[in-house]
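On to my pick:
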Amino acid sequence: MSLINLLDRTPEELQALALGWDEPSYRGRQLAGWIYRKGVFDFGAMTDLPGRFRERLVRETTLALPAIARVAASADGSQKFELRLGDGRTVQAVLMPDEDRLTLCLSTQVGCGFACAFCYTGTMGLVRHLGAGEIVGQLLAARATLPSGSRITHLVFMGMGEPLANYAATVTALRTLTSPHGLGYSPRRITVSTVGLVQGIDRLAREGLKVNLAVSLHAATDEVRGRLMPINRGWGLDDLLAACRRFPLPVRQRMTFEYVLLDGVNDSPEEARRLARRLAGLRAKVNLIPFNPWTGSGFRRPPLERILAFQRVLLDAGVTATIRWSKGEDIGAACGQLRTAEQRARRQPVGAAAAS
């Protein structure tokens, strides 16, 4: 009999599990409290649960937490966790301090099948999807390393993989993260990033989760974006931005557009003006990300004056634009640099992952 990984279940599903075992539903809430609030993973230590319930948990369930295989520390205070999964595969998560924030960057897949030209993770291909418990487990594993009194305040689904291609597991993880009986995060403190899966954006809009959305744009024309991001050949900029306009934004909330600046490719003032026109009428902010180099990429980071000039064009056009200097570059943990030593997988068609 295969064991049920309780981390794959939302707190509400743990209540249903308890009922199915002829226990009152509040036993499921108590179980969720031990796991998510108290960080206790030993059933024997869950002292307010009846003995018969704990015995059945031992027999039929598990709490399969990713194991921390290695931690790399950056000079800027960031930490890159290499996490070993139950099948021996590894993923990476990055913990980033910033004044009063402590943000954890989560992965949703081993590798990525979308092959964006500037992204090192894309050179792996897609190895496999993560389960919801493997996504949430990254947070639980990283949280256990913190000193007493510290708390991870923000979560970004911007690590390895495309969250909306692993849709069901991503949404289940989000429900556990935001449930008052789970980890209790405000949706405003969670950001889900996507390469631009139009159907996934529309599906997420209907979930009512109210999390932030970050869209990887990286160009203002289909010609340039198609060269950088194969996904653009399926859903062009018009389709993508239409989906962004349909996405419900809470009051005072903006949609984030990620834009990696590549020297001589997408960093001209003309491209900035095109971008401003594309975003007209959207409650948007643009994160300008100077390219983080990796061996063999073929791209360069633009000089500082060109980065600032691009930002100035956007600001003058009334578009909120910030320059995001990535953390952890010295340990290969910056935006677009995550990659593990997995064997290169046979590359799947882009649409294959989205069907999950």
